[in-house]
User: What shape does this take?
Amino acid sequence: MLDAVLRASGYEPLLAEDGQAAAERLAAGLRVDAVLTDVRMPRMDGVSLVVRLRSQELTRALPVIAMSAYNDERQEREMRAAGADLFLAKPFTVVALTDALRMLIVPRAS
Assistant: This one.
């Protein structure tokens, strides 16, 4: 569903099946403008993914939006402490997501 929403909003999402796959693709040099991650995922959760991204030179400054269906302050604090830039509680609106992306993504020079 997120893929369809992002495409309809003009983005070109690249999906990973879990945090481990995302971390491996990014460490291998995959270039993206931002990372959207769920807090709870198999193999590597969102907190671990963000910690790994922030610990590597290639991904240290990459904007990260964390999402969770479990809207509690503890999860948001953990994700922000790990280095996530924003936290969106599910369900969120398309407008909230696209506003967050526009706020975090710096347009590239042509």
